[in-house]
Specification:
146 residues; 4-stranded antiparallel beta sheet; alpha+beta; 4 strands
């Protein structure tokens, strides 16, 4: 497996810290010490990445994160907690690889259209499942007409 390092932003006060990952909205974690919150963040991020891979979602590349950029992003989003930002820490996770898969080049326009359909809940499938299902249907149709 390949490892990637993302940056988590820690907020809070002694005994009650939280960590968020700007590259992965919706994957926060908590801990009682800086070390504990970093470890809990690593576990949460690892799980989040694995679920994204299972669903065929695109895993973002790590971005550069600073306390200032995080504070601005959360201030702009109207963060209600108003907790102090404490640190930015590197968190390394293993990138999962789906067994028996191949990489195939697909036009970005088509991938964006599929992603939009999946995100708007028009389809109950993930992007990967959508592509696999559509491909299987077309292969079955071609076999039946041969």
């Amino acid at each position: 497996m390949v490892a990637k390092t993302y940056y988590g932003a820690i907020f809070g006060t002694e005994g009650d810290y939280g960590i968020v990952f700007p590259d992965f909205p919706g994957s926060p974690s908590q801990g009682s010490t800086l070390e504990h919150v970093a470890e809990m963040g690593r576990e949460a991020l690892q799980g989040h990445v694995e679920v994204m891979a299972d669903y065929g979602d695109a895993i973002p590349e790590p971005s550069v994160v600073t306390l200032e950029s995080v504070a601005k992003a959360f201030d702009d989003a109207g963060d209600p907690d108003d907790e102090p930002w404490v640190a930015v820490v590197p968190i390394t996770v293993e990138m999962p690889v789906l067994a028996d898969t191949s990489t195939v080049a697909v036009r970005s326009e088509l991938v964006r259209e599929i992603a939009a359909m999946v995100q708007s809940n028009v389809s109950h499938l993930s992007a990967r499942q959508f592509i696999e299902t559509a491909t299987r249907r077309e292969l079955d149709r071609l076999k039946a007409s041969a």
